[in-house]
Every structure is written in structure tokens, then in C-alpha cells.
Amino acid sequence: MEQGCIFCDIVNGKTETKFLYEDDILAVFRDINPHAPVHLLIVPKKHIRSVNDLSGENKDIVSHMIMVGKDMALQENVNISGYKLLLNVEKGGGQVIFHIHLHLLGGWERK
Ligand code: AMP
Ligand code: ZN
Fold this sequence. Notes:
single chain, alpha+beta, globular, binds adenosine monophosphate, binds zinc ion
């Protein structure tokens, strides 16, 4: 856990943020400033700054994030209509919270 990291605080249950899903590895919650009708954040409990800081020992975390993303798309009923799974990397890539997280964006249409 990194001092002063808002996502460390959230995934460790130190805020009022409601989880849509949680396990030992990660937590899922709604983005506070959604950019799509469905906008979830899939956030590991381990503090990793960005994709640049991933190493082989994080392989299981990353694959689990994607698998949970897929399950959450089904739960939010955007799996058939389609969605984006997005990782912003560092400032130029749009990252503003430097604790790795996967965005799930969708729900523009649910046909
Ligand atoms: P990124 O630009 O990839 O770093 O994305 C960070 C995201 O975190 C943004 O979409 C923010 O709206 C979202 N965010 C920031 N603070 C919170 C919070 N307390 N709860 C939920 N989402 C947040
Ligand atoms: Zn953190």
C-alpha cells in the first residue's frame, strides 16, 4: 500500500466507495466521472504504478483483470453490444491516477 494513493485507499476499503465486485486480487467500482453510460474501473490491490512497471510476477494479476473485465461486461449487459477495455499509460497516455487500472467502457447501445 502506497501512502497518499487514492486507489490504494479505495481497494483497501478506507473510503465509502461501493464495490461491484471484490476478491483477494482486485476490486471493481464505478468511475466517479464516467465517460460512457457504463464506466467501471478494475483495480488491483497491489500498488503498481503503470503498465511500464509490470514484470513477469504480475502476469496473473493482469490476466485476472481482463477476465474480471469480461465478467463485468456480462453483468452490466454490454457484452453483446460491445465495450472497450482500456489502459492509460503515464501522463502522455492520459493516466492521471498512478496506480494501474483497467477501464471498462460501454453501454452506448445495448442491442
Ligand atoms: P486514468 O486517466 O486512466 O488515470 O483514470 C483515472 C480515472 O479515475 C478517471 O476516469 C477518474 O474519473 C477516476 N477516479 C478518480 N478518483 C476516483 C474515485 N475516488 N472514485 C472513482 N473513480 C475515480
Ligand atoms: Zn496505489
